Amino acid sequence: MVLAVIERETDGTPSAASAEVLAAARDLAHRLDLPVAAVAVGEAGDLPEDLVKQGVSHLHLLRHELLADGGPACTGEALAQLVAARRPAAVLAASTTESTEAMAWAAAALGVPLATACTEIRPRPEGCDELWEVTRERSGGILLEDAALDAPVRLCTLSAGGRPTGETAAAAEVTVDVFVPELDAAVPRARRVERAPRAAGMTLATAPVVVSGGRGVGSAEGYAVLEELAGLVGGAVGCSRVATNNGWRPHADQVGLTGTRVHPDLYIACGISGATQHWVGCMGARSILAVNTDPEAPMMRRATWSVVGDVHEVLPAVIAEIRRRSGR
Amino acid sequence: MSPFPDRAQVVVIGAGIVGNAVVHHLARLGWREILLVDKGPLPDPGGSTGHASNFVFPVDHSREITQLTADAARQYTELGTLTTCGGIEVARTPERVQELHRRMSSARAWGIDAELITPAEVADKVPFLDPAPVLAGFWTPSVAVVDPLRAGELMRERATAAGALTVSAMTEVLGIDTDGGRVRRVRTDRGDVETEYVVVACGVWSPRIAALAGATVPLTPAVHQMIDVGPIPELAATGREIAFPIIRDMDPLMYERQSGADLEIGSYAHRPILVDPDDIPSLAAAALSPTQLPFTPDDFDPQMEAALELFASVLDRPDAGIRHAINGLLSLTPDGHPLLGETPEVRGLWSAAAVWIKEGPGVGRLIAEWMTAGAPEIDPQHSDIARFAPHERTRAYVRARAAEGFNKTYGIVHPREQWGSDRGARRSPFFEREQALGAEFFEVAGWERPQWYRANEHLVAELGVADRPHEWDARWWSPIINAEHLAMRRGVAMIDLSAFTSFDVRGPGALPYLQHLTVAQMDRPVGRVIYTPLLGPDGGFRSDLTVVRLGEEHFRVVTGGADGARDRHWFTTHLPADGSVALHDVTSAMCTLGLWGPRARDVLAAVTDDDVSDAAFPFGTARTVHVGSTPVLALRLSYVGELGWELHAPTESGPRLWDALVEAGAPHGLVPAGIGVYGTTARMEKGYRLMGHELDAEHGPVEAGLALPGLKAADFVGKAAYTKAREGEPEATLCTLTLDGARDRAGLRRYPQGGEPLLTLDGERIADRRGRPSYVTSAGAAPSLGTHLLMAYLPPWHAVEGTGLLVEYLGERYRVTVARAGRRPLFDPDDARMRG
Amino acid sequence: MDVLVCVKRVPAVGAEILLTADATAVDTRHLGFTIGPHEECAVEEAVRIAGRTGGSAGVLTVGPAETEEQLRYALSMGADHAVRVDAPVADPQPEVSAAAIASALRDLPPYDLVLFGEASADAGHAQVAFRVACALRRPVVGGVKGIEPGSDTVAVRREVGDGVEVHDAPLPAVVAVLEGLNLPRYPTIKGRLRARKARVRVLDAPSATGGLRTLRLRHRPDARAQTVELGRGAAAAPAVVDVLADLGVVR
Questions:
Q1: Exposure winner among A268, A309, B178, B376, fewest CB in 10 A?
Q2: What b/e readout covers A300-317, taking b as 16+ CB neighbours within 10 angstroms?
Q3: Is B584 a catalytic residue?
């Protein structure tokens, strides 16, 4: 079987990441002509009904009082014992913090490798029975690595994104069994003592939009228009090294090699030429809008969208247009 | 983006400060269809311009570099991209204090405001500097920081606005096609461009680009380390990029400057780290930029310690961190000077490489003027890319000299200092014999030439020659030189002159060709030896040399070793296209011995059956004589003011000629003498001028006292300017001055070396009406006159024999007297000895 | 409190990463080396904890002699001692790294807290901390962005999903941290000079193998298409706002 590790939301439903894991597990199981199994911590709840629709024929529920406060050691240990007992061909999990640490512990306990951040799993390529190949992300996703995975059971976490999820041919039925691992309460472990919703608040590192300014902004006062735009788009203000060095912005605002590396949905680069020193700080952005007088500037060539022009002409016009459309 | 053109008047490759300055000045001088390409993006394509520390220290011992820097600073100022902050070179050792005095002399000579200040005054200007290790400071108020990226943008804008320029960034040059030794086409990844002119302004990549056309740009990329430490609140509080003077901490070979909230520390002290141009990473492969390589901290550690000694108050803080550290690439050349001008290998292929930020726009103007008018306003003699002999263009040589030169960047370099690396490239056939005589070899163009012979040491006492008491004056010098000089004037000496560069010029067009290049009349009888200036288009000196008419259509040109390569380029580029003249460099085929002194005829007569009497072989003529079975071209002339000959023989017969002369000379007191006599003492006693010292493009024959009595009818390069100069009064006259028993404060006799400023008795700087300063062009002993001589151009109101002036040398001033205005020799003024 | 930070030598890459001709490794001919941003935060945190508690901040790496450059970098940031577990390569498989570190921790004087970066900047296996914890039967928490050391426990904070969790772990514990935990300081000049002279303790590694072998590296097919020019000057504003609206950042 191919075992999918299900993460559950607070209400017990599978997380979005788990849906992707299930899709990948189904695909792999199909190629190997094996059944799809799932493992989750806690009570069944609505899970069997959810999972049967997604082609899962076995659901293993891990149950132990030490699993309640969620230390990775306990989950990993429990998972390892389940794998040892059921001997799946592969165990797939999401690349989240929680799943990765449980899988890492399980791999260590089982004495097997763990392939993290996989984008593709190729079982038994070209008639090779034992050796599988995986493709995984390296260097923050800039590179892909093809690797041979040599293990009796293949533990993989999957990089997020890109897999079709959705419903598929349902399994005939789902067998639910409860697996109670042997966990030693005497082994020191971490315990979750508090869980709270994440506080609101905008930081450069977490903002969905970063409005960033460089040499082309021209002065400390010039950032007022960037602040205003950031306010309108729900973003934070950043800057390049030139701005910090000129004393226009504090170092905390600096994006780049020697500043913060940001990963927003949109990075608006205003008057930033895009020297590498800066680029490495913002290349993680999902999209980039560059405004610069020089169409040849590297940032303009690397951006998703570009506007040729002076920051102090373009931005006020954009702000006016936003206000016009929203009637603000 | 503008469409990529398929033809251009000129293609400039490289959009750093130099390329941008070149296109700006070409456009200003009327060039159109200028194409500027760079492989990288704008405004910072990734070359050295993008990471330079951007400061301008105006004072250099070299007048040429000082002029380029001054011009560049004017241009940066005019573009609004220069911030004056002042700068201080600090000394921690007594030897460096002396060097700062020398800097003062250069500052005064070139007319740059500067002052020696005390450690307390240094600390006044830079309050966060600990003056305890400092002995003195050389304060230059005009030191500035510039923004070369902005300056480049503005210069591109101006050329574009003039309708003269197309800029194509992200464009890789794939090839440069030539045809018949001329540039025809530049091939790029955006298309091919037909053109007759290419300027290679590619900094560290220049060797690669020039090689596409088959030319060499002899530089090597080398690492210069720099780090930024901050934030430092005192610097941040200024709110400016730079508000404090830049410190050059000369003894540890490093500098510190404010850069916003940081203190930037740069070093020229670490081991030479040379990079092959082919190993420079691409834009994509580099972490920061192709010329900002990964920092190697081990190399920088001593600099950190040195920096802490001066700047502990701001650097030794837990929150002042090393925020940026790079191994920046810059260009090093074998002699430290830029590589400017048309490459000698390919017509139309120009180099503008190995240029510091402080000279960039000045070089742009120089190149543009040179390309437009055939000569720039500033004499490029020491920067001319044509100056290198073939072996000096090799990778091995460039790397050896660059490695040796790197630590001289802030070093104390004696004016006569010799290089140690890659010596022995060119040896005359006399080399082993000279070595056996204990020759002290100095180098010119790779030739090993005896400067003096230790075998002559006994003459020092015998002839009563005084030593120089001060180590600096005596460095790279020996009293033996003066002894050899006296021995020659007393008897006879032979001097190895094999470093001469010689060309054979033949063909039906030979006479008109030479007439066109020279000031003197070339249409003289066969067998005549003719001394002549060669002028540039504006009438300044391009060279001076000797021409021998060997046949109706056959001439031998003999010029100095130092300038041989440049002269060869000059002669080559002027060859007529019709093939009527053939030019052959016969330097390697010939060796030369000078035989001079009252007994020279006795010696020559003893080794040849030919009649060498004055009647048969008068002064100013050349003949082939036979020394045993060796045919020797003998030229009766002299640069030392004595009876005698230059004997030119086949290289392979050199040892026999030497041995024959030594044997025959013994009864006449023949001594071997070095270039110390030939190039300095004997020459200066006779008032002979030396290219690169007295003779330069800023002065013509009239001012140099070398105007000829008649003006030939034939046209020649520079004739109009020369004719005009002959008709007017000179603005300056080359004078010979005597040093009147100079003793320093310690009571030691002192001997200026050259390059020092001349001052009035009131201590005022002297310059002529064109602003040209009066400084010592040559200095040397005059053993036969019992004095020390200086040569200098003086404006007419000082160029009066008997006038008293001062020379400033290493912080003290010494009384000198104008002994001669003009060329008449101080020693044997009527030339009786050499005509005897 | 005595803290040990495990760091890894990784190439300091630029905008693009070049590969060796056989595509099995990053071409580092033109690159310098560094430690990852998560690890810089770990070193910073260790230095702060050591300073606050009067303890020590050690730094450890697994690899050949050249990896001492990274140890010295951490020393110049304020770490006070360094250990290198000798290994033939600087990028061992995670099982090998874990075995080396676990073995070293058995040999070295006890540490209260062992810090890792969440994942190395190059291979990004994200598992060595947990393998070490498993081998030594120690409590472990990953994804940590806040550390509060107590007398015999440590409280750590991390962001999981849309929530923030606090975990308590008895000491000695293992923690894997994320960038953002703190703002790491730059090395100081004094720190660098001290680091240069510091002695690095070298330990032998046990023999171990891993089961994930790199076959080849390749570039991810570039998802970012050609740049779309939205216009020039103020006239581009409507097109810009259209884009912002499509992204859902303005209405």
A1: B178
A2: bbbbbbbbbbbbbbbbeb
A3: no
